[in-house]
Amino acid sequence: MTTESLTPMAEANRLSAMLNLVLKSESERFPVDVKSLALECSKNRFPGDPITKIEGHDLPGFEGMLSPNAARTKWKIVYNDSQRSSGRIRFTLAHEFGHYLLHRNRQDKFMCSDLDMNDWDSNERQIESDADTFASTLLMPLDDFRRQVSGEKISFDLIDHCANRYGVSRTAAALKWIEIAPKRAILLASRDDHLLWARSNKAAYKSGRYFATRKQAIEVPAGSIAHSCRRSESLLQQSASARLWFPAEPEAMPITELIHSSGQYDYTLTLLLMPDAEWRYDTGRMAWQGRQAR
């Protein structure tokens, strides 16, 4: 089996199925022990070039690194040990493990920053997208994640429940949730009233509701609760017109903002939730018409 024979999700699901068989109790199953898994799995599957070392170092500007020795017979994963969040470290380890399984025949070294791991374009940065998808699927298997959120109203309390169960950051759990959100959802990170990065789910992206943060500086709208947000623990929510964020939306289209601003992190997280959009024919052209929330 080559390192690129499976998709990121298929590779992660294969490992999850193995863990489900071996680890019977929930306390053993979650959070995933990525260090032990990466060392044992690579040794058994790829004895000619396994991962033999996983260690923390000072990596200014980077979250993690995957690199081989000169002979390419051994690989090591290095994570930024100045990072305070054990959840971010676990995701970094899974991300680099994903690079090892999926991409190590493509390039010699992988140096991944926080921006690489949160703000990527699926066409231009497919490798980072693959590693993120692998890490998310391995740490938060979709079937188990759905059980945790099924029937529950979305809130950052629910997001934090998932983050604690899987031993990941609040950001990673929120990104997982928008993947399965029933309608249009966008997760934003902002600092000093400007977006750092943004991720839209498929429904939002297809309706043109996304932010090209790599191409331009984008300000947080003055009417948003994320604007000039206090740098202390706060949980806030508001309903408004979707035109606050997206001027092209129909006048009656609502948007719900949920924000979490914590002094523990250096940015504010905002969830934007909108009803579905549908096509309608209007004066000889196609335009987006939002359905009313049900």
What topology emerges from the helices and strands here?
Elements: H1 8-22, H2 26-29, H3 34-45, E1 51-57, E2 64-68, E3 75-80, H4 86-103, E4 110-112, H5 114-118, H6 126-139, H7 142-149, H8 156-166, H9 170-180, E5 184-191, E6 194-200, H10 202-206, E7 234-241, E8 254-261, E9 268-274, E10 277-282, E11 285-290
Parallel strand pairs: 1-3
Antiparallel strand pairs: 2-3, 2-4, 5-6, 5-9, 7-8, 8-9, 10-11
Primary descriptors:
five-stranded antiparallel β-sheet; four-stranded mixed β-sheet; 10 helices
Please give a structural write-up.
The chain has 294 residues and is an alpha+beta fold. Helix content is 35%, strand content 24%. The protein has ten helices and eleven strands. The strands form three sheets. It has a five-stranded antiparallel sheet. Strands 1-3-2-4 form a four-stranded mixed sheet. A hairpin with a 6-residue loop joins strand 8 and strand 9. Helix 8 crosses helix 9. The longest helix is centred in the N-terminal third of the chain and has 18 residues. The chain is globular and about 60 Å long. The C terminus is likely disordered.
Number of helices: 10
- Spatially, the strands of the biggest sheet line up as 6-5-9-8-7
State the assembly state of the protein chains: single chain
Q: Give the termini distance in whole angstroms.
A: 48 Å
User: How much helix, percentage-wise, in residues?
Assistant: 25-40%
Number of strands: 11
